Amino acid sequence: MTNFFASRKGIISVGLVIGCLAALLQYLGNPGNMGICVACFERDIAGAVGLHRAGVVQYMRPEIIGFVLGALGAAFMGRDFRPRAGSAPIVRFVLGVFAMIGALVFLGCPWRAILRLAGGDLNALFGIAGLIVGIGIGTLFFRQGYNLGRAQKTYPSVGVVMPLIMAGFLALMFIYPQVADEAKSGVLFYSLKGPGAMHAPLFVSLAVGLLVGTLAQRSRFCTMGAFRDLILFKQVHLLSGVIALLVAAFAVNLILGQFHMGFANQPVAHTQGLWNFMGMVLAGLCFALAGGCPGRQLFMAGEGDGDAAVFVLGMIVGAGFSHNFGLASSPKGVGPHGIAAVFIGLAVCLFIGFTMRKKTA
């Protein structure tokens, strides 16, 4: 299994599966052009546990839980569970915070940018262009010796912390399910309207998350890595999987009547092209400096990478900041302080990139 998913046919197969499942999740109840969005779903989780009070985006998304637990299972099956940590964790946390801020200015992670385009949302073109530019800036730092340092082998207990957190989140969903017409059930918050109130059936979402987590861990699927490898090494292995995701989602959207081309009136999107672009420049640079897109960070956390787990926690906390301080966008446009946050985030990333370079003799 490992050899197949590491091959060109394997990564294409994974992209096709993810694209089909994402479009089906939208059909079964997830928000429009948001069958899977790591940033948006982590934002919903942040709301579910009360890190922000934006009532329209609060739900404990089972897909995210499944990504981590599926990756954990795949890592054990493939003898690939490698507990490690210690590679500039505080920097990774900060990068996670600003990655989420940039993604919420755009309103989506790299996966959702692809899925938005597959659904006909032409605003996604600005986001994808910004993502590529941000990753491109990151590759300039790579060429100059940028490095967060080497992670060290550590205790197995460190490697299972994030999977245990996700298992705990799942347990909370079962202990405190949503009561009809109640915005709070026990300790969890639930949206009564808006994107947070739109979701596929719990067990379907969880099953999809587990399957995607398994396949992505085996194949090393990563949208950031796809563009990084193309720019740095002229390699298209990972990119072929991303293209397959786009094609599959586009085809399923056409079949299900979910394709609507244009800029205006797209679901959970705004038409401010410059800030769609700039938000993803920030996010793409953060993903590059941290070594993986938000999906890949979840999969690495599932296979024992404590540093990736810190990045994930940074994104969840960043979601709380974004909604508590007016940084996140809405269909009306960029939040009142979102533009300033993008420039601050870019300054922080440039500081990290310039100061964390190994000097060559």
Automatic annotation (TrEMBL):
It comes from the Bacteria. Keywords: Membrane, Transmembrane, Transmembrane helix. Pfam families: Sulf_transp. The keyword Flavoprotein does not apply. InterPro entries: Seleno_YedE, Sulf_transp_TsuA/YedE. The chain crosses the membrane at residues 12-29, 59-78, 90-113, 125-142, 154-176, 196-216, 236-261, 273-294, 306-325, 337-356. The keyword Transmembrane helix applies. This is Uncharacterized protein. It comes from Pseudodesulfovibrio hydrargyri.
